[in-house]
Amino acid sequence: MTMLKNYISIMRGAVLTALLLSSASLLGQTTATGVINGTLINKDGIALVFDTDPAGVTLGAAGTSAASANFGTVSAFGPLSAGVTRPSVTAANFTVRTIFDVQVIQGGLNSTGYTLAANLAAVAPIGFSYKVDAVTLTTVSQTIQTNGAYSTDVPHNLDLVVSTAAPGAGGPAVNTPITTTINFTATAN
Amino acid sequence: MSFNFSFGGTRALLMLSGLLSLFAAAGQAQTSSGQLTITMTVQSSITLIFQNNPAVGNTGFCPLTNAGTNNVGLDMGVAAFPGSFHTSTCVNYQHVGASFYQVSSAFDVVVSKSNSSSPNYRLAAEISTVPPVGVIWLINNVTLTTTGFTALDAADNYATPVTKTLQVQVRNNVPAQVLQETITFLATAN
After folding, report:
1. Is residue B176, in this structure, part of any structural domain at all?
2. Cβ neighbours of B119 in A, within 8 Å
3. How many domains does chain B have?
4. Which of A53, A103, A150, B83 is 20 to 30 A from B139 in CA distance terms?
5. Surface of A (128-157) touching B: CB under 8 A
6. Of A22 and B40, which is predicted with more confidence?
7. In this complex, do B43 and A78 lie within 8 Å of one another by their Cβ atoms?
């Protein structure tokens, strides 16, 4: 009986020691916590880029908002570059045409379409007039399209109407590269 | 009604102004712009086409096939020396001297210019293959060859029809055969 009491006493001591050691171990752990407060300001906006149309000339810097279209050498009766056609020749003028694509992308807007406008950056050179989809361009912005669809290439005809008159008689300069810039603006409807 | 320009009134005006600015900003349309730069070089050019003469259908003026282009056909039918035989009703048939017959037909050449200061053009022609012995191809009495372009006119006016007559002269000892030539006309700006 005495031995049993001694055994129980020993076991109680062992359990107590184990609990004390365990508490000491927990008290020694080092921890840290943190949070990230993420913030994003989502802006709305639209962007316009020019893309090469399969039926048109290959644009320089295609896929950007500052592209270039080189018609090469044009004439009323001579050969034309790939992607350039000549839909009409009259006694007064001839028209050379290429096709280019406009793609407008929007984000964050409750807009179902856009209005496209264009204007010449400067007065047209002598003997030339410029058309986009039959709209004769001036230095004043004019509407080209009122219901453009977003996120898709929309083809547009770019016509150069060239006078057949001789240089110095109302016709354009010949054998000299001529450059013109057209500004386009897309406005969300 | 009176306006209160005390601090409280000014604050109200400022708040109203701010609200109006916000509404104005919300109503502003979103736009995006781009620039397309176009480059081209204009070159002078001229073109030549063949047209039916206004007298087409009459003797000496056969109709061209594909008239109005620079690649036409002119069928002069079947002809022979004996008996002034010819099947075409539009060719002009005649004997030339004692041993040749000639069939001829006229048509118009029109040359147009663009972006050129050239005052006029010169016209020449050549045939594509050497004809059989005893056969001569001529334009307006000028014999054509295969060795080079033969001058026809020195200064024709642009955009004005110039009537030319194609003549084929055949000696009476030429064997029966199809006589065919491609006649190339060359207009050169002066």
Report:
1. yes
2. none
3. 1
4. B83
5. 130
6. B40
7. yes
Alpha-carbon gap: B187 to the closest alpha carbon of chain A (Å): 13
User: Token digits for A151?
Assistant: 């996120």
The span from the CA of A184 to the CA of A120, in Å, is 9
Assess B26–A contact: CB distance below 8 Å, yes or no.
Answer: no
CATH number for B175 = 2.60.40
B contacts of A146 (beta carbons < 8 Å): none
Q: B112 lies in a domain? A: yes
CATH code that applies to domain A45-188: 2.60.40
* Strand A66-74 relative to strand B31-42, pairing: parallel
Tell me which residue in B38, B39, B115 faces A171 most closely, judged by beta carbons. B115
Whether the pLDDT of residue B19 is over 90: the answer is no
pLDDT tens string B30-85: 999 999 999 999 999 999 999 999 999 999 999 999 999 999 999 999 999 998 99
CB-based contact A181 B115, cutoff 8 Å? no
Residue B107 has which token pair? 């048509």
Name the 3-class secondary structure at B11.
helix
The full length of chain A comes to 189
Cα–Cα distance, A180 to B51 (Å, whole number): 39
d(CA A62, CA A74): 22
Q: Tell me whether residue B25 is in a domain.
A: no
Q: How many CB pairs under 8 A join A and B?
A: 157
* Residue B124 belongs to domain spanning: 45-189
In whole angstroms, what is the distance from residue B52 CA to residue B67 CA? 6
Query: Per the domain annotation, does B3 fall within a domain?
Result: no
Nearest residue, CB atoms, A179 vs list B30, B31, B37: B37
